[in-house]
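Incident log, support desk, overnight shift.

02:14 A customer reports that sequence design results differ from what the structure should imply. Their input is reproduced verbatim below. On-call engineer (initials T.W.) acknowledged and began investigating.
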């Protein structure tokens, strides 16, 4: 049956309309007239309404008419995501940022993984982080968590704080949003916020202490204040609940003796408040049958400061305490604690075998040094002046 005789224009009419739509810049007036004819017969085709709005804007038509065509494009298929995105783009070009934000918000509904795309688009004209989240991000922790991930990836600390305040808290252990917020806070030097957020989820954590120093919680990938236990081939790190100094576990490191291991993990970041008097890092470790001359050692570094090295006392030893004093800082700092090994590839015994345990890792502020006795006396009793015969 011929399609051109159908009331709505038929398939032939739609194909012809699509051809005009794709080439409307060659003769926009003719394209506009043809789309008007087509939409009278097939009014639920959102793409044609949108193209008619674009042509009207290009030809300088009445803005109210252009907006009407754009709203018709959305109204005939309100759930069409591509149509929503195109409507947001045109609304911005028409100088209607509120409508553009509304279209972006509707486009995002049900698609939290695309939150970053919306934040990038709307962030070009909505500068305030709170307004940006309120206007274009739907309700729900899935969207706020995605906003935190976007903020971390782009170094947007203020946006991260705004998203964090909107999340339901405390966050569960291992939560990606918690890790994103703490990672960004540490990178921005906001150590107080990082410690406060971590303590909400881990009440046993004390700000300024070594996170999970007794290995009560599972170790992870170094996100937030987790221990980073991603070990290279030939080694592994696990919690040992059978050998420890403090309950319930220690950190057990096993080396199979088949690899030239260059170690920089396990490691952990330790944010601390300002303390000019310094800190004392202590803990316990144990070893069994460590091989090679290049033994593992602990490395402590305050921010970009000098490294302090703590060597293992032997290749085999029972639980033994270690203690190291660190220089202080007049500003909050981030200490880096890691197990390192720097083997020489030329040594015949460069392969590392054996087992090493670590437990009860502590960080305490060092007590202020007592002033000299003479200095204290001079402050308490200022020197007498005048003729000695007049002194009492």
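02:41 Re-run completed on a clean worker. Output:
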């Amino acid at each position: 049956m011929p399609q051109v005789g159908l009331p709505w224009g038929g398939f032939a009419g739609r194909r012809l309309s699509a051809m005009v739509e794709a080439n409307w810049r060659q003769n926009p007036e003719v394209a506009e007239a043809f789309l008007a004819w087509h939409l009278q017969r097939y009014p639920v085709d959102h793409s044609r309404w949108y193209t008619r709005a674009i042509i009207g804007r290009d030809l300088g038509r009445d803005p109210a008419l252009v907006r009407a065509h754009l709203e018709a494009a959305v109204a005939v298929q309100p759930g069409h995501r591509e149509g929503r995105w195109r409507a947001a783009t045109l609304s911005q070009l028409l100088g209607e940022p509120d409508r553009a934000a509304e279209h972006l918000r509707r486009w995002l509904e049900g698609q939290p993984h695309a939150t970053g795309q919306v934040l990038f688009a709307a962030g070009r004209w909505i500068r305030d982080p709170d307004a940006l989240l309120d206007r274009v991000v739907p309700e729900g922790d899935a969207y706020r968590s995605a906003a935190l991930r976007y903020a971390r990836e782009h170094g947007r600390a203020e946006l991260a704080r705004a998203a964090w305040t909107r999340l339901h808290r405390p966050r569960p252990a291992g939560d990606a949003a918690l890790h994103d917020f703490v990672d960004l806070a540490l990178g921005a030097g906001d150590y107080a916020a990082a410690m406060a957020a971590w303590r909400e989820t881990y009440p046993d954590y004390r700000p300024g202490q070594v996170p999970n120093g007794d290995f009560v919680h599972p170790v992870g990938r170094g996100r937030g204040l987790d221990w980073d236990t991603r070990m290279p081939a030939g080694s592994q790190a696990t919690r040992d609940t059978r050998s420890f100094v403090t309950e319930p576990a220690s950190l057990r490191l096993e080396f199979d003796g088949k690899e030239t291991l260059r170690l920089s993990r396990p490691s952990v970041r330790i944010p601390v408040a300002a303390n000019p008097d310094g800190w004392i890092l202590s803990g316990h470790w144990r070893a069994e049958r460590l091989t090679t001359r290049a033994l593992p050692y602990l490395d402590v570094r305050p921010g970009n400061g000098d490294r302090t090295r703590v060597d293992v006392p032997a290749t085999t030893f029972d639980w033994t305490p270690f203690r190291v004093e660190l220089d202080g800082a007049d500003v909050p700092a981030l200490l880096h604690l890691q197990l390192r090994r720097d083997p020489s590839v030329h040594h015949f015994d460069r392969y590392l075998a054996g087992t090493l345990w670590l437990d009860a890792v502590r960080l305490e502020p060092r007590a202020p040094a007592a002033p000299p006795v003479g200095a204290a006396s001079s402050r308490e009793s200022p020197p007498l002046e005048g003729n000695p015969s007049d002194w009492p």
